[in-house]
Design goal:
- By secondary structure, the protein is mostly helical.
- It has one domain (4-205).
- Helices cover 82% and strands 0% of the residues.
- The chain has helices at 4-26, 34-63, 67-70, 72-94, 99-108, 110-127, 131-137, 139-145, 147-163, 167-182, 186-201.
- Helix 2 (34-63) runs antiparallel to helix 4 (72-94) and helix 2 (34-63) runs antiparallel to helix 9.
- The two termini are 33 Å apart.
- The mean pLDDT is 91.
Length: 208
């Protein structure tokens, strides 16, 4: 397998934060409400991983290094794992395993509805992130996986409703997300490829 060390490094980097947050929760290092803090950290971690996943293609276009694309699926699956843990934490710590409360939130709280839609979209992408699905779906596979852009917008809207008063951090993530979406525009993507080609030919003459 190519990029074995790189893949392992990404795996370790993605697996450490949840274990660290769990350790902090067990030993009372997450404040007076460790359950909520754990849920919030997992949600934010999922958003960051989603942004990193979307950054792999522009990085590959700039550098032409295949390692970025090699870990893109792994990062996407880690993003889904964080969201799944985020959801489990909500059911356990926020809803207290009360099904009626979960169902009520799904019908009455907009940010829960938006979060549930984002999770459903990520579930569809995670289930089809394999060679069998690529062969079976054919051209439809790419169309399905373009849902990631909608999922990003849903995730940002979910976070906006959650933070409300503290918009500074949210705005930073929204700007990064907007820039990554802009890089998907064909003219911008072509520009990135040209800049990458020029930089590889003569790095000193190209200023980014």
């Amino acid at each position: 397998m190519r990029y074995r060390v790189w893949r392992l490094a990404v795996f370790l980097a993605a697996s450490v934060p949840p274990l660290y947050w769990l350790y902090c929760a067990v030993f009372g290092l997450l404040g007076p409400d460790p359950g909520k803090a754990l849920v919030d950290n997992l949600g934010l971690g999922a958003l960051i991983l989603l942004l990193i996943t979307l950054a792999m293609t522009p990085l590959q276009q700039l550098s032409r290094w295949g390692g970025w694309i090699a870990v893109r699926r792994q990062l996407g699956l880690w993003c889904f794992s964080y969201v799944a843990l985020h959801l489990c934490g909500y059911v356990l710590f926020i809803a207290g395993l009360r099904l009626e409360l979960v169902l009520r939130d799904l019908t009455e709280r907009p940010y829960i509805i938006v979060g549930a839609l984002a999770f459903t979209g990520l579930l569809a992408l995670a289930v089809t992130s394999n060679r069998f699905s690529i062969r079976r779906l054919g051209r439809k596979w790419k169309a399905l996986h373009r849902l990631v852009y909608v999922i990003l917008l849903l995730a940002l809207l979910h976070m906006l409703w959650v933070v409300r008063a503290d918009l500074g951090e949210w705005l930073a993530y929204a700007l990064i997300g907007g820039a990554l979406l802009l890089m998907r525009v064909s003219t911008v993507a072509s520009g990135l490829q040209r800049v990458g080609a020029l930089w590889r030919e003569n790095p000193k003459k190209v200023e980014i």
